[in-house]
């Protein structure tokens, strides 16, 4: 950020907090509406037994990856280290407490 480059973060702490808060306010609610739309697509009458954490994971992938299934498959199959981590199951231990 601008404050970090000039060293003003420490000098103007309160101004930094105000500017950071103002910048973080979304201009519109389009992103949230998009997430709700994606959630309604995932959580249908046929799939109503999905757990909240499963729907959350599906939404995270849908919102953060702009790839087709074929592109995702190519990316994953080309990354042996990532495939090993996927098969370890560490991701599940991380979310058990949530």
UniProtKB/TrEMBL annotation:
GO terms for molecular function: protein dimerization activity. Residues 9-63 form the HAT C-terminal dimerisation domain. InterPro entries: HATC_C_dom (IPR008906), RNaseH-like_sf (IPR012337). Signal peptide: none annotated. Pfam families: Dimer_Tnp_hAT. This is HAT C-terminal dimerisation domain-containing protein. It comes from Meloidogyne enterolobii (Root-knot nematode worm).
């Amino acid at each position: 950020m601008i404050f970090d480059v000039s060293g003003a973060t420490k000098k103007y702490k309160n101004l930094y907090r105000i500017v950071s808060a103002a910048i973080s306010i979304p201009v519109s609610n389009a992103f949230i509406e998009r997430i709700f739309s994606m959630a309604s697509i995932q959580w249908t009458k046929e799939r109503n037994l999905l757990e909240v954490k499963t729907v959350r994971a599906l939404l995270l992938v849908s919102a953060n990856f702009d790839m087709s299934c074929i592109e995702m498959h190519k990316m994953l199959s080309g990354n042996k280290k990532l495939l090993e981590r996927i098969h370890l199951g560490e991701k599940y231990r991380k979310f058990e407490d949530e």
